[in-house]
Specification:
The protein is of the alpha/beta class. It folds into two domains: about 130 residues, Urease, subunit C, domain 1; about 280 residues, TIM Barrel (Alpha-Beta Barrel), CATH 3.20.20. It has 15 helices and 17 strands. Strands 5, 6, 7, 8, 9, 10, 11, 12 and 13 form a nine-stranded parallel β-sheet that branches. Helix 9 links the parallel strand 11 and strand 12. The protein is globular and about 65 Å long. The model has no long low-confidence stretch (mean pLDDT about 95). The structure holds guanine (GUN) and zinc ion (ZN).
Length: about 425
């Protein structure tokens, strides 16, 4: 049993702060007490330290926030970021599918998985919901690498029996491989499984129905897919499913819309879909850098708030252009403003931490730095660059946080801790 203390400026937003100012938790001189990787106490240092007279305390400079949670990201696409020129469907054909074919090679997949997780840690991201490829072993190597790093990660084999040659499974192989993966990985480390049909266009009706059966048969797994991202995609979905009320209804007809469903994007949603998302408890992983990069549009935060749709924040690498959830939060602010909605920096931090955690059903474990939760946290440096230092000097907490979101990126991540252990240190320039 090891008990350790971390003293520093603590900030977390465990609940949606919209209309709830109490949701922001801030201790200027705080103490986090961690026992075997779990936060057992948190509060003002001077008020708390008396209860732990022999505590070994490490002083942390900077602003300590919960580890970021990327609610939708593709690990096989990390080497295809910045592929020039097209919107979603052409971009998939020209850049993404050829890259994903390379994951038939297990050694290649394992090497990318390790590099990907290290890049998450370098950016302060400690948990993620991750798309692998159609290959069963693409999940095994990712989960192995996450186990090595003790990261809380969710993933599941991509289902795509209408995919291109070389990336196509079948209903039967999708069923047997998904069942085998769920059996093999259930209860191991900090991992979780997500049934992952790529999107409506890459699965037959029979495979979408299988995804619904898998979801219904395993109460501990998530459903992870894409929804209403890009105009041409939406038109193709409407043409293939003329009887469906809208894109979400396609998934609904196969039992894929429920409290455990995570849909990436949701750029083109009507009010009916938002009402249905809210009543079902399903939610949206908002991906602003990806939506800009592929010309998909801007997520309508106002509409989502009006309907009470659950939301989290995501990079969507490799359509997304940065691993940094700070940068992604800054773009979320700009995307929200493009549709007339003001996203304040505390709510953006909530989206990137506890909001994503709730979407992924891991909020009892991570996201708020609350007692009882796992001690995944990040040490932010609000003077990481000359410009940040100038902008945050004499600034309020809200101004510092906003500057970090607009001007910050991986350079502002001084250290990343996983369950109280330093997993990345910028000064040592290494993954611990
Ligand atoms: N829709 C289906 N597949 C993908 C993908 O790989 N990336 C994005 N952004 N959208 C998708
Ligand atoms: Zn995606």
């Amino acid at each position: 049993m090891t008990i350790r203390g971390f003293r520093g400026e603590l900030l977390s937003v465990p609940r949606d702060p919209r209309g709830d100012a109490e949701a922001v938790r801030h201790e200027r001189d705080g103490l986090l007490v961690v026992e075997d990787g779990i936060v057992i106490a948190r509060g003002d240092h001077d008020a708390l330290i008396g209860r732990y007279p022999k505590l070994a305390v490490e002083k942390l400079p900077g602003l300590i926030v919960p580890g970021f949670i990327d609610a939708h990201v593709h690990y096989p696409q990390m080497d295809r970021i910045a592929s020039y020129g097209e919107q979603l469907l052409d971009w998939l054909d020209r850049h993404v599918f050829p890259a994903e074919k390379g994951f038939a090679d297990r050694v290649h997949a394992a090497s990318v998985a390790g590099a990907f997780l290290d890049e998450l840690l370098r950016n302060g991201t400690t948990s993620a919901l991750v798309f692998p490829t159609v290959h069963e072993h693409s999940v095994d190597v990712l989960f192995d690498a996450a186990l090595d790093r003790n990261m809380r990660l969710l993933s599941g084999k991509v289902l795509m029996d209408l995919g291109p040659e070389g990336l196509r499974d079948t209903v039967d192989s999708a069923r047997s491989e998904s069942e085998a993966l769920i059996r093999r990985w259930r209860g191991r480390g900090r991992l979780g499984y997500a049934v992952t049909p790529r999107f409506a266009l890459t699965s037959t009706d029979a495979q979408l129905a299988l995804a619904g059966e898998l979801l219904a048969g395993h109460s501990d797994v998530l459903l992870h897919t894409h929804l209403a991202e890009n105009e041409r995609e939406c038109a193709a979905v409407a043409a293939r499913f003329p009887d469906a009320a809208d894109y979400l209804d396609v998934y609904d007809r196969f039992g894929l819309v429920g409290a455990r469903s995570v849909f990436a994007h949701g750029i083109h949603l009507n009010d009916r879909s938002c009402t249905r998302l809210a009543e079902s408890g399903a939610g949206i992983a908002v991906c602003p850098s990806s939506n800009l990069f592929l010309g998909s549009g801007f997520f309508d935060f106002g509409q989502a708030c009006r309907h009470g749709v659950r939301t989290g924040l995501a990079t969507d690498i490799g359509a997304g252009t940065s691993f940094s959830m700070l940068h992604t939060a800054g773009l979320a602010y700009q995307a929200a403003l493009a549709r007339g909605h003001a996203l304040d920096p505390f709510r953006a931090l909530w989206l990137a931490t506890a909001g994503s955690a709730a979407l992924l059903h891991i909020d009892h474990r991570v996201g708020g730095l609350e007692p009882g939760q796992e001690a995944d946290f990040v040490m932010l440096d609000d003077a990481a660059t000359l410009l940040l230092a100038r902008r945050t000097r004499d600034a309020t907490l809200a101004e510092r946080l906003f500057a970090l979101q607009i001007l910050g990126d991986d350079r502002a991540i001084a250290r990343t801790y996983i369950m109280g252990e330093c997993a990345w240190s910028r000064d040592a320039k290494r993954i611990s």
